[in-house]
Design goal:
Layout: H1 3-16, H2 23-34, E1 38-39, H3 40-47, H4 56-68, E2 72-76, E3 82-86, E4 92-97, E5 103-107, H5 109-122, E6 132-135, H6 138-142
Helix pairs in contact: 3-4
The chain binds zinc ion (2 copies).
Protein backbone atom coordinates (compact mmCIF):
# COMPACT_ATOMS: atom_id res chain seq x y z
CA UNK A 1 0.00 0.00 0.00
CA UNK A 2 1.37 3.40 -0.85
CA UNK A 3 2.25 5.96 1.75
CA UNK A 4 -0.44 8.40 0.61
CA UNK A 5 -3.24 5.86 0.68
CA UNK A 6 -2.19 4.75 4.13
CA UNK A 7 -2.15 8.31 5.36
CA UNK A 8 -5.61 9.00 3.98
CA UNK A 9 -6.86 5.75 5.48
CA UNK A 10 -5.41 6.85 8.77
CA UNK A 11 -7.00 10.24 8.39
CA UNK A 12 -10.42 8.66 7.85
CA UNK A 13 -10.00 6.38 10.82
CA UNK A 14 -9.02 9.25 13.10
CA UNK A 15 -11.84 11.41 11.82
CA UNK A 16 -14.38 8.65 12.39
CA UNK A 17 -13.31 8.62 16.05
CA UNK A 18 -13.43 12.36 16.35
CA UNK A 19 -9.71 13.06 15.97
CA UNK A 20 -7.83 15.05 13.40
CA UNK A 21 -4.74 13.87 11.60
CA UNK A 22 -2.45 16.49 13.05
CA UNK A 23 1.00 17.04 11.65
CA UNK A 24 2.47 15.37 14.74
CA UNK A 25 0.40 12.25 14.24
CA UNK A 26 1.26 12.17 10.55
CA UNK A 27 4.97 12.56 11.25
CA UNK A 28 5.02 9.78 13.85
CA UNK A 29 3.12 7.34 11.66
CA UNK A 30 5.40 8.23 8.73
CA UNK A 31 8.48 7.46 10.81
CA UNK A 32 7.05 4.12 11.91
CA UNK A 33 6.45 3.25 8.27
CA UNK A 34 10.15 3.57 7.61
CA UNK A 35 11.53 1.84 10.68
CA UNK A 36 9.79 -0.71 12.83
CA UNK A 37 10.26 -1.59 16.49
CA UNK A 38 11.13 1.93 17.57
CA UNK A 39 10.78 2.98 21.17
CA UNK A 40 9.23 6.34 22.03
CA UNK A 41 12.69 7.72 22.82
CA UNK A 42 14.14 6.49 19.54
CA UNK A 43 11.23 8.04 17.66
CA UNK A 44 11.77 11.29 19.48
CA UNK A 45 15.51 11.22 18.71
CA UNK A 46 14.85 10.68 15.02
CA UNK A 47 12.23 13.42 14.80
CA UNK A 48 13.48 16.19 17.04
CA UNK A 49 15.93 17.56 14.47
CA UNK A 50 13.29 18.31 11.88
CA UNK A 51 10.44 18.75 14.35
CA UNK A 52 11.79 20.50 17.43
CA UNK A 53 8.20 21.25 18.51
CA UNK A 54 7.61 17.55 19.06
CA UNK A 55 8.43 16.82 22.70
CA UNK A 56 8.96 13.38 24.17
CA UNK A 57 5.71 13.58 26.14
CA UNK A 58 3.81 14.36 22.93
CA UNK A 59 5.41 11.32 21.31
CA UNK A 60 4.24 9.18 24.24
CA UNK A 61 0.75 10.66 24.18
CA UNK A 62 0.45 10.22 20.43
CA UNK A 63 1.65 6.61 20.60
CA UNK A 64 -0.89 5.89 23.34
CA UNK A 65 -3.67 7.36 21.23
CA UNK A 66 -2.57 5.46 18.13
CA UNK A 67 -2.44 2.31 20.23
CA UNK A 68 -5.94 2.88 21.62
CA UNK A 69 -7.19 3.36 18.08
CA UNK A 70 -5.55 0.12 16.96
CA UNK A 71 -3.11 1.85 14.62
CA UNK A 72 0.08 0.77 16.35
CA UNK A 73 1.07 -2.37 18.20
CA UNK A 74 3.02 -2.15 21.44
CA UNK A 75 5.75 -4.70 21.82
CA UNK A 76 7.53 -5.64 24.99
CA UNK A 77 10.95 -7.15 24.42
CA UNK A 78 11.73 -7.25 28.13
CA UNK A 79 13.72 -4.01 28.04
CA UNK A 80 11.53 -2.14 30.48
CA UNK A 81 9.85 -0.04 27.78
CA UNK A 82 7.71 -0.65 24.72
CA UNK A 83 8.58 -0.65 21.06
CA UNK A 84 6.00 0.25 18.45
CA UNK A 85 5.04 -0.81 14.98
CA UNK A 86 2.07 -0.21 12.73
CA UNK A 87 -0.72 -2.76 12.90
CA UNK A 88 -0.83 -2.72 9.10
CA UNK A 89 2.34 -4.81 9.16
CA UNK A 90 1.59 -8.48 8.73
CA UNK A 91 1.46 -10.28 12.07
CA UNK A 92 4.83 -11.71 12.86
CA UNK A 93 6.95 -12.59 15.83
CA UNK A 94 10.33 -11.47 16.98
CA UNK A 95 13.69 -12.83 18.00
CA UNK A 96 15.77 -10.28 19.82
CA UNK A 97 19.53 -10.35 20.23
CA UNK A 98 20.60 -9.43 23.75
CA UNK A 99 24.04 -8.33 22.58
CA UNK A 100 23.39 -5.95 19.71
CA UNK A 101 19.66 -5.40 20.32
CA UNK A 102 18.90 -6.45 16.76
CA UNK A 103 15.37 -7.70 16.11
CA UNK A 104 14.69 -10.49 13.63
CA UNK A 105 11.13 -11.08 12.49
CA UNK A 106 9.68 -14.44 11.69
CA UNK A 107 6.26 -15.27 10.40
CA UNK A 108 3.63 -16.85 12.47
CA UNK A 109 2.81 -20.16 10.82
CA UNK A 110 4.70 -22.15 13.45
CA UNK A 111 3.01 -20.18 16.19
CA UNK A 112 -0.42 -20.81 14.66
CA UNK A 113 0.35 -24.50 14.64
CA UNK A 114 1.41 -24.42 18.27
CA UNK A 115 -1.70 -22.48 19.30
CA UNK A 116 -3.89 -24.99 17.49
CA UNK A 117 -2.25 -27.86 19.34
CA UNK A 118 -2.76 -26.14 22.68
CA UNK A 119 -6.41 -25.44 21.80
CA UNK A 120 -7.00 -29.06 20.86
CA UNK A 121 -5.44 -30.34 24.05
CA UNK A 122 -6.93 -27.89 26.51
CA UNK A 123 -9.99 -26.31 24.88
CA UNK A 124 -8.40 -22.92 25.30
CA UNK A 125 -9.66 -20.31 22.86
CA UNK A 126 -6.79 -18.12 21.67
CA UNK A 127 -7.58 -14.50 20.93
CA UNK A 128 -4.10 -13.32 20.12
CA UNK A 129 -0.58 -14.39 20.67
CA UNK A 130 2.80 -12.84 20.75
CA UNK A 131 6.11 -14.55 21.15
CA UNK A 132 9.60 -13.13 21.47
CA UNK A 133 12.67 -15.33 21.35
CA UNK A 134 15.57 -14.05 23.42
CA UNK A 135 19.15 -14.90 22.64
CA UNK A 136 21.98 -13.87 20.33
CA UNK A 137 21.86 -13.27 16.60
CA UNK A 138 24.06 -15.17 14.16
CA UNK A 139 26.70 -12.43 13.98
CA UNK A 140 26.96 -11.99 17.75
CA UNK A 141 27.01 -15.68 18.52
CA UNK A 142 29.77 -16.21 15.95
CA UNK A 143 32.09 -13.64 17.49
ZN1 LIG B 1 23.37 -9.50 17.75
ZN1 LIG C 1 7.98 -6.55 14.13
Amino acid sequence: MSYTSRVSELEQLLRSRGYRLTNQRRVIVGELEGARHLSAEELHDRLKGEHPELGLSTVYRTLDLLHDLGIVRKEDFGEGYFRYELTTERIHHHARCRECGGVIEFNEELMEYLALQVERETGFVTEWHEITLHGRCAACSAS
